[in-house]
Amino acid sequence: MRTLSNNQARRIALAAQGLTTPRPKGRVDRRHFRKVIGNIGLLQLDSVNVLQRSHYLPMWSRLGPYSIEALDEYTARSGEIFEYWGHVASLLPVELYPLLRWRMEEIEAGPRTQRIIRDHPEYIEMVYQEIAAHGPLTVSDLSDPGARTGPWWGHGKGKIALDWLFSKGRITAYRNGNFGRLYDLPERVIAAQHLNAPRVERLEAFRQLLLLSARHHGVGTAADLADYYRLHRPTARQVLAQLSCDGELEEVEIEGWSHTAYLHPAARCPQRATGTTLLSPFDSLIWERDRTERLFGFLYRIEIYVPEPDRVYGYYVLPFLMDGELVARVDLKASRKDGELLVRAAHIEPKRNRARVAAALAAELEEMGRWLGLAKVVVAQRGNLASALRTEL
User: Fold this and answer.
1) CB-CB contact of 221 with 262 (8 Å)
2) What average pLDDT score do residues 93-118 get?
3) pTM reported for the whole predicted model
4) Mean pLDDT across the chain, nearest whole number?
5) pLDDT digits (tens, 9 = 90+) for 180-216
6) What whole-number distance in Å separates Cα of residue 386 and Cα of residue 157?
7) Cβ(30)–Cβ(67) under 8 Å?
8) From CA 295, how far away is CA 326, in angstroms rounded?
């Protein structure tokens, strides 16, 4: 079994995620979006909008400034992208639709859905018929959406019914400009060649999804690869062992890793990593936090749900990638009313060159601010990089 250094594994991972090539210099269009999706496989969706919706940020990290409206048009109307449970709620290439039919068939109703099925057995079918007759519809367009039961996940019965129909694949959805879901029948959104493709059995779907996961990772452990599409880990381990036996993946050891890793045959290992960018908390490079720590020596946890007095680094913290290393982190907020990109805290990792990191980070923040239409970057005093960063800006 071959042994790779952790440095090699890191460069392989960055190359697989499209983070070792220069950003385009001209106008960004759907060819660039298509290439990024080809590299990372899917975009995770999240409702937090303190800086920018999370699915816009991985494109920024790899492409630099681009038109958000153009990405909305691509993901909602090109026919190349659909929304489903991939990693979590995700935008995925439409070619993956047949590979996720098993998930639609096997997914089980949660307690809230079970209550509706029990107490209002006709209601979910009524919602489906309304979508069929009048879609695309938002939840508020339903004739009887029901009242919310509270903030965050206190959904009314209409939203619960729509989510269940969506999870089962009976309806599909895409996003409007306000991030709201528009629900419609799959046959009106998904091309027939994908919608009516032959059923892919569960194990074969696992095999294909794990090969894709390995390509998007470059190299990763069984747990890493299973997490990408949220696959059942014991089953994934069995399938990966067979893929290794069949020569479709190579088992390798990585210095400092306690588990065997799987290397994709198309993985590249650049001589050096040069990418410099800010990463969304939901960027696919850093989804698996244990892998992030193994690759980069960077302990990262999102603190959105941590009470403010207990937060270490801040509410919405973006890691800063510089020359292939995670060297700093910044807690960012877009103050659209004031036209300011607020750096609420800035921290540098140990043993990094403060002046060099501050200069590179300042340039990235200024470019991000311009992309978001914010005229000024304002740095608060919190964090061991704040003073140097404020000086640069």
Assistant:
1) yes
2) 95
3) 0.94
4) 95
5) 899 999 999 999 999 999 989 999 999 999 999 999 9
6) 47
7) no
8) 10
